[in-house]
Design a protein that fits this description.
This protein has 183 residues and is an alpha+beta fold. The protein has a six-stranded antiparallel beta sheet with strand order 1-10-9-4-3-2, with no helix packed on it. Strands 5-6-7-8 form a four-stranded antiparallel beta sheet, with no helix packed on it. The longest helix has 59 residues. The protein is elongated, with a radius of gyration of 38 Å. The N and C termini lie far apart (100 Å).
Length: 183
């Protein structure tokens, strides 16, 4: 008899515990789903905000065709400075004009063991036929006589003029005899 009473008491407690848990779980479900619905609305709104944000970002910062870009031309030239055609490169400050690149190259000896190679196409309007850079009489700047842009011959940086881009330069390596110009 005592055993049966204990069993009934256990069943009641188990049931009461289950009922209490069930009530708690119902309350929890209501609160959870309320919070979930709020978050879901925020997430949905965030998704729309993110989509609109990236759409605006793509619209404003999309790649536009750069009409004033110097076309890519592969350059891989070796110059023997001991050749009589390139005697001007034997002294620091000497320069020569070469064919190659888009509209030609200016090779300038900036120090005993370094050279600078600059594209002759003016970055202001590089595709115009008359736009070519020439070395000024000072030997320190290059300019375009048609648009008036001037650049420093050592690195192609802008001195003045309508151009907002630096003059295009190429890589150079000097091994003591040959100057390798490449891009």
């Amino acid at each position: 008899m005592y055993h049966v009473l204990l069993m009934n008491d256990f069943k009641k407690r188990k049931y009461n515990f289950f009922f209490t848990f069930k009530q708690m779980s119902e309350r929890f479900k209501k609160k959870f789903f309320t919070i979930f619905e709020l978050l879901n609305e925020r997430i949905r709104g965030m998704k729309y905000f993110t989509a609109v944000f990236f759409l605006v970002l793509i619209t404003f910062f999309s790649c536009k065709k750069d009409e004033n870009r110097i076309p890519y031309v592969p350059v891989d030239i070796y110059i023997d400075i001991n050749n009589a055609n390139y005697n001007d490169l034997n002294s620091v400050g000497g320069y020569i004009y070469l064919t190659g690149g888009y509209k030609g190259l200016i090779i300038y000896r900036s120090s005993f063991d370094s050279f600078v190679a600059i594209e002759r196409a003016c970055p202001y309007h590089p595709t115009d036929d008359c736009e070519r850079l020439v070395v000024d009489t000072s030997g320190l700047t290059i300019s375009d006589p048609h648009c008036g842009s001037r650049f420093l011959i050592l690195d192609g940086s802008i001195i003045n003029g309508p151009s907002t881009k630096i003059a295009a330069t190429y890589h150079t390596i000097f091994d003591g005899v040959y100057v390798h110009v490449y891009n």
